[in-house]
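Cont'd.
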Amino acid sequence: MATALQAEPRAAEAPQPFRVRTRRRETHDTWTLRLEPVDGVGLDVRPGQFTMVYSFGVGEVPISFSGDPRGPLVHTVRAVGAVTRAICDARRGAVLGIRGPFGNEWPVAEAAGGDVVVVAGGIGLPPLRPALYEILRRRRDFRDVALLYGARTPDDLVFRRELERWRARGDLQVEVTVDAAVEPWRGKVGVVPKLIEGARFDPAATTAFIVGPEIMMRFSAQALLDRGVPPSCIFVSMERNMQCGVGHCGHCQLGPTLICRDGPVYRWDVLVPLLTAREL
Amino acid sequence: MKTIDAVLRDVPMFQGLTPDELVLMAGCATNVHFDEGAVLFREGDSADVFYAVRQGAVALDVFVPTRGAVTIETLEGGEVLGWSWLFPPYRWHFDAKALTPIRATAFDGACLRDKCEQDPSLGYHLMSRFAQVMIERLQWTRLRLLDVYGYGAAG
């Protein structure tokens, strides 16, 4: 299992004020916020970790870090409810509360020397972007690297300009698909697990990272297993109702594990008995 | 230049067919090319052919009033396009359009059905391969029916 990294007690218990530095629209309902600490003390956030983001007077939600680990705190948020809508509405200069970082990280260092397949569905790409930044920073340490990304429609794709830049690099396979499309989309239409069939990687020497809706992760993991990737080399990031972030409240319990404390990144062979248990 | 039965050996779906079966199939096949934007077939037209796409990308579209042509699937090199030739009334259910220049092998459906009738072994092998493709596409369609990227628990 990936390494657990917990926030310092001060940052874990009380929200620290962070100011919205920039706010960029990704899609009709998704925004990327770049945040800076009001007191000047930044956070050391690792790829895969999340923070609890507090919109004062509205509420708090767990949001994965989506930026460069060597850069400022960046979150990409989809407005799906009252709290996330309030966060997406926060304009430049607005102050949000941040607790964390919480959770473990993607095993990027452990994947060095082999191939890496990154599979993202919908709003699952933001939690994987920090890992991609790390991989691309030390690209020579890896062999084939593939990013396979699926969304509902072309209008729901996030980081579109960055996807084009990554595609233009030539050392990263970037395959994008959508569930349905109208003109002028000229790309692939189909489900993201189908992209796994055509991707170039050596299954015996591959580490895979998957984030997306749980069903999409199950199908994607199965497609990777079908190609021969060992279950111990497939990692997924789980999402549950995380509230305290430090393993006290129990809201994010999944069987014997607390996702905020032991996850959110899990090895597939560890996770699959919990995912398939009907009582959980 | 490769003979058609040699070309067919490279089609993933036909792997495992005997050389004799490939020769039988090649007797019903021709190599074809479509320019980008060409329409391979239209919904409602007679389905008397299927294609083994060797190179390029094809969009399967359905016309939806007020939305226009909605692409529901794209198929690429190594995939097979069309199964409406297998069963009456032999009519296409979707439009197929070349997103890029296409190189493909086209099979005459009536010719192939006749050979399958005469050679049940070929018929079984071909039908089981088409069934596999249909099941796979059915599974992917079921996954899309779940609309997994829709709004879940709101926070």
